[in-house]
Amino acid sequence: MPFAEKYKPKNLAEFVDQTEALEQFLEWIKNWRPGSKALLFHGSPGTGKTALVHAYANEKNLEFIEMNASDWRSASQIQQVLGQSMKQMPLFKRGKIFLIDECDSLAGREDLGGVGAIIKIVRESKFPVVLTSNNPYVAKLRFLRQYCQLVQFRKIPVWDVEERLRRICKAERIKCDRDVLSQIAKMSGGDLRSAMNDLEAVAGGKNEITIDDLEALGYRERGISIFDAVKMIFKTKTALAAKLAINEVDKDPEEIFWWIENNIAREYEKPEEIARAFDIMSKADIFRQRIALRQDWKFKSYMIDLMTAGIATAKKDTYHKFTRYQYPNNIMLLGRTKTSRRKSEEILDKISKLLHASRKKLRAEYLPFLKIILRNKRNTNEITSSLGVEKEELKSLLE
Amino acid sequence: MIFLSEIAVWSEKYRPNKLSEVINQKHVVERIKAFVKEKNIPHMLFAGPAGTGKTTVALAIAHEFYGKGWRQNVLETNASDARGIDVIRGQVKDFARTKSIGDVAFRIIILDEADNLTTDAQQALRRTMETFSSVSRFILIGNYSNKIIEPIQSRCAVFRFKALSEADIRKYVSRIVEGEKLKISEDAINAVIYLSEGDLRKVANLLQSSAALGERITEKIVYDVASQARPSDVKEILELALNRKFEDARKRLQDMLLRQGLSGEDVIREIHKQIYSLQLTEEAKVQLIEKCGEYEFRISEGGDDLIQLEALLAQFLLFSKSPK
Fold it and tell me: In this complex, do A356 and B301 lie within 8 Å of one another by their Cβ atoms?
């Protein structure tokens, strides 16, 4: 039996996280009568939504009927599966509780009647119904929400995940370092189920795990936002966690590079940390340029390690503060000035031929002087006509 | 004296079109003259500091071979504006494979700032150089020859352009002074020589700008021009960093590089100069100058101007005073 299954809480006493959600759930179930609202559990995967209902049903000897909304194709099918069951008392148990998982996956499909069918179940069921959804605010669920009370499940704190893993190790007689467990916990991003799966994958029948075994772990697509990745890098003090933080981000390393670079001074406050962090970015940049110029991809991992692990470890202590991470402003600046830059490039290209110099060279070595030279009106005509540009064009370039 | 160009920008107007008029670089010029005499040149790589005559020699060669109609037989491209492989495969290859017009057997392709070409582009270039060597010659120009891949270097005659001496620069100054009938004091000439840092392009620009500001060019005018043409915000940016207003300093720096388009190396050199005038201990100044060298080196290794300069700026924080 997989760890995630084996170590699922069997009763509410074992269900230690999500105290707020648990309270709401108990309050709701105490007062539940046919026709009451359903509960809609929402939150990231692996935070205990199903486990809570399962533990409760087990403890109270209720029949636990779990369905996954993504398996349903149509309203009539839902009706078929649940129609009878929701009205009849079970034969051998004291009652029933329904769990309809992943309601958001139902909503996006062609089976639009599905939401209506769920609403019907909620309204007519003789037994409590709990729904789950990663995101309850998708538009398709807006009618369903009126029949539900929303309960939020938070990500499980890293130390709680770590503690769980430790208990599993003890039970399984697996010997392993503190570091290994805290690493797995950090990588889980508050998803207990994935942490248990990772532990199992790493343990793989062995009775000892070392930090090297973690290399084998694949990485889960969580599609976390760039903000979360940047936050991870700035807040963690573990090199590997920082390095892995960007794996899940749907942006290329080049763009992430600028995100990190631009937010260093927002997060870090001590001069020596900022100085060190920027120096590391400067080294990462050398690798970045080597990749670009020589197409030498073997340098990519150095660039990435420096810009993630290097930045994470540039701080002395983690700043326990909220930082509003910002979009890289040089990208913004380049975006804003795009039209005017294109215009000036065209003008520079004309001059470039005549002065035998690149645009870059013209900007750096000619324009500052031309600005002064053209202050003397006598020069203007002669220069513009010999360069084949209009006065206005040249002026716009010099502004 | 005949000049190549009617262009009213002096650096161009006083660019010689004959090899014999090139300022110094005798070791290079003599050998090239011999090639020209034989009506044949090898592929060549010109390396050396800015403003020492690399482009001028390349253009003079073109002139010696083709005369007035040189542009028909010469392709000039700039690798810093178009550094990808497409340019080499497209424009350059198309030009290289076509026969020359006139009695010279080959066409010339001048690739300026060739040290900016990507490695892929250089590989493509190497094949083009080989395939069409019967109908075309390449002249590659760059500050750093070590950024050109070895297979290309081995196919080229490599010419190293030397930094120019004070006497060399003085000679060029007097060409312009005579040509433009400038009234200029001896002190002003010395100032131009000092400020030019051996770069003839800068000599011409300094003189023309100074002449635009006064009938008689004085030492003061020259220094005024130099300070106006120089990235003016540099000192303020450094002071912001020293007062721990790092984000403000960074914004100004970005504006300077991205909006005004200044080059990183220019800004670093300016920072280098400004360090002496900052309120710092002598020891701190020297430490920061060492940092300037380090980040300028990283730029020359291919580093991005903005990143490297921001990193340099961040080092100033180490010498900042905490706000009271």
Answer: no
